[in-house]
Amino acid sequence: MFDLVVATVALLAMAPILLLAMLAIRIDSPGPAAFRQERVGRGGRVFRIHKLRTMFVDASARGPAVTAHDDARVTRVGRVLRHYRIDELPQLIDVIKGDMSLVGPRPEVPCFVAAYPPALRDELLAVRPGLTDPAALEFANEAAELAEAADPERMYIERILPRKLQLQADYLRRATLGSDLAVLGRTLKLLLAR
Hints:
Number of helices: 9
Number of domains: 1
Structural class: mainly alpha
Order of helices and strands: HEEHHEHHEHHHH
Radius of gyration: 16 Å
Shape: globular
Number of strands: 4
C-alpha cells in the first residue's frame, strides 16, 4: 500500500518533468521518447520495465549491455536525463502495476541474471525489484567506473555485479519499513545534490 500511494503521488507530481523530458528527447533525436526493456523480476519472471530513451534507437545492436559514462550511443539529452536519473522516473508505473517496489534489488537484464551465483539468485529474486537500494546508492557513479575499463561488460560481470549482489542480499536480510524509508531519503538526497 505504501508503494502504491507514494508511487502514484510521485508520478503525478513529476508529470510535468516527464512531459518536458519526453519533448526534449523527441527534438534531440529521432525515435520514441519512451521504451520498455526486458528485466527479471520476482520469482524470475521477465517483465518489461518503463524508461525514457537516452540512447539512439539502434543502440542495443551497437554495443554492450552496460553503459559507460562516455558511451557514444547516449544522446545529448540522454546525458542530462541520466545524470539526474530522470530516465528512471517512468518506473513509478512499474511500482503502481506491482512489478516493482520503491526499495528492493535493482532489476537486471536476463543475461546478467544468468551470471548470478545460485545461492544469491534465489534470495534476490524472492522479492520484487526496486527503484533504489543500497547497492544503487553505492554505485551511483558506476558509469564513470565502466568508462575506465577496456571491456565494460566484463568489468561489470566480474567486479561490480558480485559486490552489488552481496550488498543487496545483506540489505534484504535486515530490511524493515524504517530502513526502506532511510534508503528513499538517501536517494532523494543524492538526486537533490545533483
